[in-house]
Amino acid sequence: MMTKSEEEEQNMLNDQTEALNLLQTDEEHGGEESGPEEEDNGAVEYPGTVLPDPHPQSIENDADLAAEYPSDSEYLDLIHLKITSLEDLNLSRFKKLESLCLRQNLITSIGAVADLPVETMEELDFYDNRINHISSKVNQLVNLKNLDFSFNNIKNIKNIDKLVNLENLYFVQNKIREIKGIETLQKLRNLELGGNKIEEINEVLLKLPSIEQLWLGKNRIAKFQNLDNLVNLRVLSIQSNRITKLEGLDKLVNLEELYVSHNGIEKIENLDKNTNLTVLDVTSNRIEKLENLSHLKKLTDFWCSYNKISSFEEVHKELGGLPELDTVYFEGNPLHTSNPTAYRRKLRLNLGSSITKIDATYVKG
């Protein structure tokens, strides 16, 4: 056991040693106070703080993303991974691939689709990327059934004319001005071109009688035309355009759903031949009178909010006898705004017993 004097001497020695160590540490850091430890990438790690991504727009090695999939994979989903290059994915490795989904990435060039297996590929999805140009290599994938280029920067539809087995084609939210380059797609059933800059329904559609669903919302179309040959069309959506007149639909005898909301239509007319309609959406137009509807015996949904309808008598005359009518929307019309309290009660009195929903609210029994 140490004596008191020996303990004091040992403590003094320990203090001197600690002071010497601190001095050496200060010299190594340039005499400044020591701070958080820096990692190799320059990011400073603070306790409880998420490190910033030094490359926020890309992943260093795209090849690693596909490497985890076995070479005999039939489906490849690489979604929201900041992929910039198809070349790095080594797609030629997947000899049995049927579906490739590359949604929500940063891809600009797609020439490497040439590495995909022609015989097996049926679905290719580039939804939400940065593609400006459709590579001619896409035309090699002749067995594709589904092709999605929605939410890109494409101005021209081209290099897909040999994809004669396509059934579903999506170009939603691009910069397309003209419908073209699809005349040869005789098996096409669903065509989505909403959110573009299309000004005209041109003659190309006359060559595509197989189409069952046509989506043209949010364009600049002013007139219904060139639809006569679409005898199989079941769904037509042309919302948020510049349509002022319902016309040119008399050949669409199999039409079941018609969406023409947010246009400048003033009159419900020319639907005499469309007796298979189940859904009719004329929301946010300039319609003042309910008319020419009583023959639509299969109608289940009639959406007419934010127009200028004021007569409950017209509601009774045109809709009261429709046996399948289930849902109606009339909010924002004068028959609603003039007396909101009595509005629902009066609607119920003038509609048939089949009604279950008024303005998104279920009718009480």
TrEMBL record:
A GO CC term assigned to this protein in UniProt: nucleus
PROSITE patterns: LRR
Keywords: Leucine-rich repeat, Nucleus, Repeat
Extent of Acidic residues compositional bias: 1-10
Region (Disordered) location: 1-60
Any Pfam family the entry gives: LRR_4
InterPro entries cross-referenced by the UniProt entry: Cilia_flagella_integrity, Leu-rich_rpt, Leu-rich_rpt_4, Leu-rich_rpt_typical-subtyp, LRR_dom_sf
Domain of life: Eukaryota
Compartments (UniProt record): Nucleus
Compositionally biased region (Polar residues): 11-24
Family the UniProt entry places it in: Belongs to the SDS22 family.
Name this polypeptide is given: Protein phosphatase 1 regulatory subunit 7
Organism: Candidozyma auris (Yeast)
